[in-house]
Amino acid sequence: MISKILIYVDELEHINDYRKVGVSTFLFALEGYCVGYKTYSLEEINKVDVSNKYILLNRVLDCNDIDSLRVILDTLKGIKGLVFEDVGVYELAKKLNFDGELILFQNHFGTNEHSVSFWLDKVDSVFLSNEITYDEIKHIVDSVNKPVCVHLYGHNQVMYSRRLLLKNWSEEFNIPYKNYNLIEDLGTHVKFRALENEYGTVMYSDKIYNGRKLLNCKNILYYYMNTMLINHKAVMRFLSNFDLLDENSEDDGFLSRETIYKLKER
Amino acid sequence: MFEKLELLAPSGDLERLKIACLYGADAIYIGGQNYSLRANALNFSLDDIKEAVLFAHQLNKKVYVTVNIVFHDRDLVGVKEYLKNLDDIGVDAIIVSDVVVMDLWRKLKLKMELHVSTQASSLNYEAVNFYKELGATRVVLAREASKEDIKRIKKETGIELECFVHGAMCTSISGRCVLSNYATNRDSNRGGCAQVCRFSFKADNTDQIFSMTPKDLNMVSDIKEMIEIGVNSFKVEGRMRSVYYIATVIDVYRHLIDMVVNNTIDNAYTNYYLSILNRCANRDSTSQFFNGLPGKNEQYFLGRDEVSNKDFLGIVQSYDKNNKTVTLEQRNYFKPGDVVEFFGPKHNVITFVIPDDIRDEKDNIITVANHPRMIVKFKIDDELEQFDMMRIKVFDISQFL
């Protein structure tokens, strides 16, 4: 099972710890193409000596980004594949005959068997949504004809804005700027973790999603662990024993909690 | 010459659709009772859609139907039949974000066009090319598109581009937010958005309470440039907005687009129309991403009172040419002596002073029109039409010339 883990590398020095417990596939957020993650330059990523390296591109890209990505993809070497949000990346990679793997990682999409199958005809794998139930995931996983990716561990991405929300708040109220903050909705008392860079703001769930229930699924290419904003010891604890659940800081997201489509469903 | 230009209006029901058509929209987008992102609105039954299409097509207008939720497997039950029904009815296009519907549209070989929703977050030419290859004839760009992006996308793809010009904004990139799922268990991408971004928040490093609410979008000052860089369809947000809002906003943008095409637009009219729209709105508005990244001045941080607008005084039901008498349905308080104006699709703004002799439905003389939706009659020499609107007179174009 550990061989199927795709882990986001938040600190380069953690890689050895991950390797020691058997993790062999790593995800690096590329500078300039990601929000909500600590990013690395291409040079930094190239220097990392691991065989299974994927690059994350999770921004919604504008035209200039596509232009510069064209240059990067043309020269990219030593990379197993791209994990991307914007369908423009797929289109560009296709035109450039990019020979690495392509994994579609559209947050909040990948919610039904047919859409996932549609994409699996075009790319190597697809991330399933974090907002569907265990049964829905199981149905998709059992129905599609290629292995897919599911979230296993980490703060779930809840919102992505192009606006610099933390910077705006700091300027408006003359509060010292931090690019990370824990915010609480005063009505529902639900908390979110806001993280910002020059390309926008991402809100993560406060609690760490623990998807260990999915470990019995077949037809999985990768179980994704997003280590962003998580203490390294907690990550290593999870890697050493998937059965542990810290009920204070973790939950299973929507795996057993279906969202409401229409209010009359209540 | 400009390419095909289209003013696209929202409608939450048949009355609003008719108003939008009459006030100058070239096309109207509506939601069915399923599969649409305004899940808790009344929306249109298939019979309503049929009536809407008949009405719109008689006036040479188009009707687009949103099928833009992100589908879970169980939501797909019946969608094939639904799409076939829309096609049979003569709907002109569906607006879609989930590839499952795009794929169905292609496999079913439907006549209606495929438009890609803003929920798909298209912000670059390769993304648009992807949808073009799937058969889409139009892409609704993400609201985050800058003028440079719009221009470039048009150049590289040649596809019809639709952009929002007026109305509410999401804090997030549309489609990339599930705050409602986490805070209220309502599914944002299946029409359950509870607008959590407009709630009050507190951060852990300050006691200051704040919200993330963006100001509204308003492209009155930029409409000429939008036309020049190749936008084809100018979309007004707000399927749940009032008839007055729709009439006012559509009337303004109709005039603006026509003036750009006729090369008669100038700052005076731009400022006049801006004033009218600002008066009609209950939030401030800006051009948001068109001219660069919005900063702190393009959003609200604290709770505000959204004052309900009392400018809308009545809607004309009929006009008796023989007696030169208008019958209207009251929407806000008015009385003899009030200076008002009538606006409508077939005439310029008419300034008028409410006469002393105003009567109710039973022809009793009344001193004020103070009951919501009461029927009021009075004489006026100018010929009016059903669905003309009466509002408080606040601005006159002469103030801006």
In short:
Chain A is built from 8 helices and 12 strands. Chain A has about 270 residues and is of the alpha/beta class.
What features would you describe in this structure?
The complex is a heterodimer of chains A (266) and B (401). Chain A is α/β, with parallel strands linked by helices and 266 residues long. Chain A has helices at residues 15-20, 42-47, 63-75, 87-95, 113-120, 134-143, 165-173, 232-240; strands spanning 5-8, 25-29, 52-57, 81-84, 101-104, 125-126, 148-161, 180-185, 191-197, 200-210, 220-225, 250-251. Chain A has a single domain (2-154, 208-265), classed as TIM Barrel (Alpha-Beta Barrel). In chain A, strands 1, 2, 3, 4, 5, 6, 7, 8, 9, 10, 11 and 12 form a twelve-stranded mixed β-sheet that branches. Chain A is globular. Chain B has 401 residues and is an alpha/beta fold. Chain B has two domains: 6-169 and 216-294, Alpha-Beta Barrel (TIM Barrel), CATH 3.20.20; 312-399, Translation factors (Elongation Factor Tu (Ef-tu), domain 3, Beta Barrel), CATH 2.40.30.10. Helix content of chain B is 27%, strand content 23%. An eight-stranded parallel barrel of chain B has the order 1-2-3-4-5-6-7-11, surrounded by five helices. An eight-stranded antiparallel β-sheet of chain B has the order 16-15-20-13-14-19-17-18, covered by helices on one side. The longest helix of chain B is centred in the middle third of the chain and has 19 residues, at 243-261. Chain B starts with 5 loop residues before the first strand and ends in a 9-residue tail after the last strand. The model of chain B has no long low-confidence stretch (mean pLDDT 94). The interface between A and B is large, with 69 and 77 residues.
Number of strands of chain B: 20
Helicity range of the residues of chain B?
25-40%
| Largest beta-sheet characterization of chain B | 8 strands, parallel, barrel
- Low-confidence segments of chain A: none
For CATH, the homologous superfamily of chain A is named as Phosphoenolpyruvate-binding domains
Helix content of chain A: 25-40%
Largest interface, by Cβ-Cβ below 8 angstroms: which chains and how many residues each?
A-B, 69 and 77 residues
How many structural domains can be distinguished in the coordinates of chain A? Answer: 1
Rg of chain A is 18 Å
Tally the helices of chain B.
10
Structural class of chain B: alpha/beta
Largest sheet of chain A: 12 strands, mixed
